[in-house]
C-alpha cells in the first residue's frame, strides 16, 4: 500500500516536527511495516525522523501496540537518564501528533507513527563478525535489565499466544489430523519428531504459570537488525522494532537468538550435514546476554537457558511444519517444500542441541 511523496508529506504534517520538511524516501529492509526516512531542514542543519505505516493486518490492535511502545520507551528513557546515558540515542523516542496521539489514523484506514531518527548508528542484516553477535546479546540482555521492574502483565499481546508452545502444539496436531493437502503421510518422521517432544512443549508455559519463571517484558524478535550499532564504537546502543514487545519469559528472547544465530547452516539449508549448534557462538551469546542482564536473571532462568534455546527452535520448526501441512499460507515460500526444508533444519538443530546437552549446561553453569 505505497504512498507517493505528496501523500507521505501530508501524513508527516500530522506530527509535531522541528524544521521544514525537505525529503522523504523508503528506508531499511523490514518486511512488515512500510518505513520511510523523513528529513527536515532546520537553519543550516537537518533533522531526521522515521515515519512508519503500521501493518494492521498483522497487528490488529494498533492502539494497544502503541500503548505498549509508549509505556516501554518512556520507562526506558527514565532508566537510561538515571544511569547517566543518553535517552535520545539509547531508546526509541515517539513523536506525537498535534492532537497528542502516539499514532495517526489516515482517512484510508492506515495507521502511522513517527520516531526520532537515531543518528550515527547502523543496523546490520547479517552478522559480519562474531563481535556483532556478542554485541546484540549484550544489547538484548541490557534491554531485559532496564525493564526488569516494568509491569509486564500490563502489556497487550500484540500477537496472541506467540510463544505459547502448548497452543502451537495443539494447532500442529489439528493440522496433522485435518491433513488438508494430503501431505502428512510423506512427513511422518517429522511429525513423530514433534510428538516425541510433546511434553517439552509444556515446560516453559507451566513454569511461567506457576511463577517458577518470572513474567518479563520480552522483545520477541531478537534479530541482529533490531539493534542500532554505534558507527564509531561498534557497540549496540538501542533496541528497535518494539511491535512484538509482550509479556513472556527472558528465555524466549535468548532462545530465539540462539536458534538462528548459533546455527552453522542457513534457516532453509537442504544439506542437513551443514546444520549444527555452534558451541563457541552459543557460549559467546550466553556471555553477552548474561552480562547485559547484569544480575537480573534468576538462577532458575540461567539454568533453563539451554531449554529456552531448544524450545524456541522446536517451536519454530513446528510452525514451519504446520504451515507446510496447511498449504504454505503463512510463511512466504520460494520453492516447493520450502517450509519443509525450514522445518528440517530446525529439527536438526534441536537434535544437535540434545546431543550436546551436557556441554550446553556446562556453559551456562558458569554464569550462576
Commentary on this structure:
It is a single chain. The protein is of the alpha+beta class and 368 residues long. Helix content is 44%, strand content 14%. The chain contains 13 helices and eleven strands. It has helices at residues 5-12, 62-82, 87-90, 130-146, 165-178, 188-195, 203-210, 250-261, 279-293, 299-303, 305-326, 338-355, 357-365; strands at residues 20-26, 34-42, 45-54, 94-95, 104-105, 111-116, 121-122, 216-218, 227-230, 236-239, 246-248. The strands form three sheets. Strands 1, 2, 3, 4, 5 and 6 form a six-stranded antiparallel beta sheet that branches. Strands 7-9-10 form a three-stranded antiparallel beta sheet. The chain has a two-stranded antiparallel sheet with strand order 8-11. Strand 9 and strand 10 (236-239) form a beta hairpin. The longest helix has 22 residues, at 305-326. It is globular and about 65 Å long. The model has no long low-confidence stretch (mean pLDDT 95).
In a few lines, what is going on in this structure?
With 368 residues, this protein is of the alpha+beta class. It has helices at 5-12, 62-82, 87-90, 130-146, 165-178, 188-195, 203-210, 250-261, 279-293, 299-303, 305-326, 338-355, 357-365, and strands spanning 20-26, 34-42, 45-54, 94-95, 104-105, 111-116, 121-122, 216-218, 227-230, 236-239, 246-248. Helix 4 (130-146) runs parallel beside helix 9, helix 8 (250-261) crosses helix 11 and helix 9 runs parallel beside helix 13 (357-365).
Amino acid at each position: 500500500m505505497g504512498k507517493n511523496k505528496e501523500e507521505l508529506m501530508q501524513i508527516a504534517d500530522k506530527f509535531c516536527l522541528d524544521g521544514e520538511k525537505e525529503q522523504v524516501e523508503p528506508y531499511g529492509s523490514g518486511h512488515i511495516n512500510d518505513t520511510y526516512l523523513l528529513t527536515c531542514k532546520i537553519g543550516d542543519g537537518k533533522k531526521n525522523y522515521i515515519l512508519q505505516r503500521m501493518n494492521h493486518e498483522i497487528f490488529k490492535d494498533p492502539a494497544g501496540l502503541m500503548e505498549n511502545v509508549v509505556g516501554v520507551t518512556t520507562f526506558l528513557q527514565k532508566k537510561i537518564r538515571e544511569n547517566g546515558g543518553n535517552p535520545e540515542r539509547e531508546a526509541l523516542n515517539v513523536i506525537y501528533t498535534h492532537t497528542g496521539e502516539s499514532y495517526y489514523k489516515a482517512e484510508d484506514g492506515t495507521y502511522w507513527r513517527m520516531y526520532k531518527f537515531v543518528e550515527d548508528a547502523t543496523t546490520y542484516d547479517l552478522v559480519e563478525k562474531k563481535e556483532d553477535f556478542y554485541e546484540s546479546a549484550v544489547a538484548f540482555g541490557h534491554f531485559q535489565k532496564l525493564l526488569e521492574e516494568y509491569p509486564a502483565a500490563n502489556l497487550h499481546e500484540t500477537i496472541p499466544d506467540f510463544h505459547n508452545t502448548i497452543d502451537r502444539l495443539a494447532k500442529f496436531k489439528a493440522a496433522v489430523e485435518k491433513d488438508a493437502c494430503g501431505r502428512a503421510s510423506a512427513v511422518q518422521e517429522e511429525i513423530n519428531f514433534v510428538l516425541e517432544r510433546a511434553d517439552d512443549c509444556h515446560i516453559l508455559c507451566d513454569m511461567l504459570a506457576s511463577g517458577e519463571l518470572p513474567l518479563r517484558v520480552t522483545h520477541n524478535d531478537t534479530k541482529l537488525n533490531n539493534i542500532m550499532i554505534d558507527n564509531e564504537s561498534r557497540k549496540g546502543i538501542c533496541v528497535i522494532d518494539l511491535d512484538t514487545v509482550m509479556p513472556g519469559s527472558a528465555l524466549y528472547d535468548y532462545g530465539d537468538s540462539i536458534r538462528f544465530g548459533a546455527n552453522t547452516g542457513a534457516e532453509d539449508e537442504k544439506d542437513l550435514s551443514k546444520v549444527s549448534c555452534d558451541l563457541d557462538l552459543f557460549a559467546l551469546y550466553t556471555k553477552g546476554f548474561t552480562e547485559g542482564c547484569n544480575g537480573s536473571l534468576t538462577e532458575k532462568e540461567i539454568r533453563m537457558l539451554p531449554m529456552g534455546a531448544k524450545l524456541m527452535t522446536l517451536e519454530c520448526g513446528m510452525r514451519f511444519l504446520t504451515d507446510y501441512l496447511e498449504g504454505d499460507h503463512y510463511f512466504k515460500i520460494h520453492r516447493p517444500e520450502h517450509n519443509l526444508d525450514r522445518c528440517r533444519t530446525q529439527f536438526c538443530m534441536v537434535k544437535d542441541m540434545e546431543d550436546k546437552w551436557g556441554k550446553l549446561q556446562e556453559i551456562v553453569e558458569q554464569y550462576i
